[in-house]
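Usage

Read records sequentially. Each one opens with the input sequence:
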Amino acid sequence: MQNTNFALATRFACPVVELLRAGRNPSPPRSDWRFFVENDDSDRIKVALPGRIGEQLGLMAGDVITSVNGSAARPTNETQLMHAMRGRLDELHIEVERDGKRLTLAGRVEPEPNVLDRTGLYVAGMLLSEVDRRLTREVDVAGMWVEFVAKGSAAETAEVMAGTILVSVNATPTPNLKAARMALQAAAESGKPAVLVFKRAAYSAYSSGLFHWMERQVPIDAIKSVRVSEAD
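and closes with the structure output:
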């Protein structure tokens, strides 16, 4: 994306580069776990939902993670925890405190798919990709995520916003990449602007549900399959 700047601490970036140079996968674990937000300025990581790693390692709700692979450095947030797990997923050891006891959980966990391999659709100036599966175990958000909307595009003219979820095209559900491509292709062949239904998280206390729903008419022409990492 243009005019967007990102910064990453070298202590997180350098080990990723080193793993890549060694021909090893630097991806973090594939997980949908969640942690409690503490209200006492605590620096501990306490598990709220164990998720996929809980199933693979025996992690339980209420466990406090104290170390990864015997490291003396105790992770104090999720970023540090995920970073400590990179490159160690084939033989992972997580130390936890549970009911006043210290336990070591060991096993192998699956990595997240390589971010460079993600594919999506670019149509009418918007980039669509499948919703992150880590979200789907908490709430039903199946659909296509609008990652980016180009300036001056048909999508922007129709007031489509990045961060929304495409739910349907001309009343045809779009729960995944294949369904979205077929529905958009049919809309393009009709020669008429398509009726797209989107939803996004409702931030207002006055909303009647978790999402705001929006209907937009967007002309659909060329549909391009792209690697999300290559979208400009």
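Summary fields computed downstream for this record:
- Residues 105 and 129 are 34 Å apart (CA to CA).
- The radius of gyration is 21 Å.
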